[in-house]
Amino acid sequence: MAITGASCSPDNPSWANISVRLQERGWVVFSAAIDGAVFAKHGTTIDTRLTVIDRFPAVDPTIFPASPGIAPDVATLLGW
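^ that's the sequence the OP posted. Answer follows.
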């Protein structure tokens, strides 16, 4: 699992090559942005991204899971 800035997305052209190289080693199973307000009580309001990576390489490193958009909180993101 990785928590990064929201723009660190496989569909962002700036990160496309890096994302493909990542998937040659570990499959990106899930990736979604989280509204920065979620972390306000911890002193930051920067939008972040939760990415789940399996330890096995992707069958096709150029295909990524569809992003569900920006979650207003982690519970919504995980469907709780």
